[in-house]
Design a protein that fits this description.
Conserved hypothetical protein from pyrococcus furiosus pfu- 392566-001, ParB domain, five-stranded mixed sheet, six-stranded antiparallel sheet, elongated, Conserved hypothetical protein from pyrococcus furiosus pfu- 392566-001, domain 2, 8 helices, alpha+beta, 2 domains
Length: 289
């Protein structure tokens, strides 16, 4: 598939267009489990809209497969709806345009008593109360799997006898399952409960997870040692969003994969000609996700 040439944007900076491709759904490998709280309503929105809005971001694993960096829920939705193809944005995981950070979980929808009781029922999970600074240090040194904050100055370090990535992720999934099923999970980038409650007044706890490195994400996908949903946070410079691409183009309509990608490139070129594409260099909030 031919690459697009650099395009002159209104900002007078030269940017390379995002690498958008259509691939088979079964070529994508998630590195995390999907979140039913997000995927269930998303399936309905995709069906009703008939468009593919925000493509998952993927990185090549080998000649045939890609790791999903962001978009596990959208991938799950297309699988559930039976579409054989998916439109993705392909990025170079080793480039400076991709940055890996970590989301924390703010938990609501259950009492702090239920939250702690559910954690204590996880076999082999150890909970050690301590001040917040000490919990941060334990997590930074990977002496804890995670820590939970129930007040601004106190925390519980969560640990277990887990040495491999697969063992650690298994326990983390057990932790997240305790509130993913019975409570409400939202993502946040602070471990201050008072700050979290400005957005989520009924929040009872925050779970703080370790920082991952890109090789761990790749191995988690390759070995199916999935992270819990909503932990890895990939920040992409030049993220393609709001494509509004026809969903029907991802169905089995008699076109070959090559033909589908040729049609996609023509569609992109027409969007450029119609001045429908704009590059935002600054961080942006979207209120229609």
């Amino acid at each position: 598939m031919a690459n697009l040439n650099p395009v002159e944007f209104e900002s007078s900076t030269r940017e390379i267009m995002p690498n958008l491709q259509i691939v088979r759904v079964d070529q994508l490998l998630p590195h995390e489990t999907h979140d039913n709280q997000r995927s269930t309503p998303l399936i309905k929105r995709i069906q009703e809209s008939g468009i593919w809005l925000n493509p998952p971001v993927v990185a090549p694993m080998d000649n045939e497969r890609y790791v999903i960096l962001d978009g596990a829920n959208r991938h799950f939705c297309l699988l559930s709806l039976g579409y054989p193809y998916i439109l993705v944005q392909v990025v170079d995981y080793e480039s400076e345009s991709v940055k890996l950070e970590t989301w924390h979980h703010v938990v609501s929808g259950l009492s702090w008593f239920e939250f702690l009781r559910n954690l204590r029922e996880i076999p082999a999970l150890k909970m050690e109360g301590m001040d917040l600074l000490s919990a941060r240090a334990k997590l930074a040194q990977r002496e804890a799997l995670a820590y939970t904050v129930l007040s601004d100055n106190r925390a519980y370090a969560l640990s277990a006898d887990a040495n491999t990535l697969a063992e650690r992720n298994h326990v983390l999934n057990r932790i997240v399952d305790t509130y993913k099923m019975s409570g409400t999970l939202n993502r946040i980038n602070t471990d201050s409960l008072s700050v979290a409650r400005r957005l989520y007044p009924n929040a009872v706890a925050i779970i703080v997870f370790p920082r991952y490195e890109p090789p761990e994400i790749m191995v988690a996908a390759r070995d199916r040692a999935y992270l819990p949903p909503g932990i890895s946070r990939h920040i992409i410079l030049g993220r393609a969003m709001r494509l509004n691409y026809p969903l029907a183009a991802l169905s089995e309509n008699g076109e070959t994969l090559t033909q589908k990608n040729e049609a996609l490139q023509k569609w992109i070129q027409q969007r450029m000609a119609d001045k429908r594409v704009r590059f935002y260099a600054e961080p942006t909030y979207l209120f229609d996700e």
